[in-house]
Design a protein that fits this description.
Structural class: mainly beta
CATH class: Mainly Beta
Helix content: under 10%
Strand content: over 45%
Number of domains: 1
CATH superfamily: monomeric porin ompg
Low-confidence stretches: 1-29
Distance between the termini: 35 Å
Radius of gyration: 22 Å
CATH topology: Porin
Largest sheet: 14 strands, antiparallel, barrel
């Protein structure tokens, strides 16, 4: 039965992706707007993040895995205020539905704006300032879950094209949890990312980054410090296939939350690995710019000194995106 559901999902998102082609761009190369629709069918073998040891699993836990279907729509419009200054507004709608675990179905509305300013008279040394803001509202199983405000100023510069460019950013995030006020959180983070073009090829890019974060929750329930390291490689392969793969390590040291069994504060180490193969299936055809398909695998290992939070998960997804 589940195999039939997956086949139906794949056929459905192919049909829907074509069916969403409802407008034609008069000027694709230099337009101020961008519209994208995507469909994804995936399998998650541990949706609920159940502990990897059966001895630590709560009784009556129920199903852990499920197939799912995801729809997403994105609209952007760019206001060209002047030659160095642009302001882009955006709205994204995303819905994820699970076949076996509908109580985890998620609907997300995201509104954003991004002001970008290119500092003039820098020659080959490209400098850009950005100020990004977004507001996100999440529903879980049709109930309001949380709202998030995020503000992030950043600077991006390229001192020498041979060595790529660097981006430094600060991000403030405020989360208002609609179901548990104790999870209301203010988060601060600062990060640096460097993008290196391999052999000077803009399509072969290596990204290395680090970020430090501090979460301050109401009444200190979830106060923590985090350190994140990430490495990502993007490169074309053969037959028009592109590879996008990466590894992310995140360390979370809780300031106040004690482990449930034993002594000490909770510490988590999360390892995330993913590999994705994508290909433009149809390019510049009629109404749309690109129809892109991809196959992605993701593996997550979460280690913790609190065994209740140790878990592994694997996610395999098929993805189609159409861009106008």
């Amino acid at each position: 039965m589940k195999k039939i559901v997956i086949v139906a999902f794949v056929l459905s998102f192919i049909i829907n992706s074509y069916g969403l082609v409802v407008a034609q761009s008069a000027d694709i190369e230099d337009k101020n707007w961008d519209i994208r629709f995507s469909s994804k069918s995936f399998y998650d073998d541990n949706v609920i993040q159940a502990p990897k040891s059966s001895a630590n699993k709560p009784t009556g836990l129920g199903d852990e895995s499920s197939y799912a279907f995801d729809f997403s729509g994105l609209g952007k419009y760019k206001f060209r205020i002047s030659k160095p200054l642009t302001i882009t507004t955006s709205y994204r709608l995303n819905h994820t539905g699970y076949t076996d675990l509908s109580k985890y179905n998620q609907l997300t509305h995201t509104f954003g704006t991004d002001a970008a300013y290119f500092i003039p008279n820098t020659g080959k040394k490209i400098w850009r300032l950005n100020l990004r803001y977004y507001y996100m509202y999440n529903f879980i199983a049709n109930d309001a879950y949380n709202s998030v405000n995020s503000l992030s100023p950043s600077i991006m510069f390229m001192l020498d094209p041979k060595f790529g460019f660097t981006r430094i950013n600060y991000t403030f995030t405020n989360q208002n949890n609609r179901q548990n006020l104790l999870r209301d959180t203010d988060s601060h983070s600062i990060g640096i990312n460097h993008y290196y073009y391999i052999f000077g090829n803009l399509k072969r890019r290596l990204r290395v980054g680090y970020a430090y974060g501090n979460d301050e929750a109401k009444r200190g329930l979830n106060d923590l410090d985090s350190h994140t390291l990430k490495v990502r490689l993007k490169t074309p392969l053969i037959w028009g296939i592109n590879l996008n793969t990466g590894y992310r390590y995140e360390s979370k040291d809780f300031d106040t939350r004690a482990v449930r069994i034993g002594t000490g504060k909770r510490d988590d180490d999360r390892h995330r690995f993913n590999v994705e193969f994508s290909k433009v299936l149809i390019k510049d055809y009629g109404f749309f710019e690109n129809l892109t398909g991809s196959l992605k695998y993701e593996r997550i290992n979460n280690d913790s000194n609190d065994k209740l939070f140790e878990h592994n998960k694997n996610v395999v997804s098929l993805f189609l995106e159409v861009k106008f």
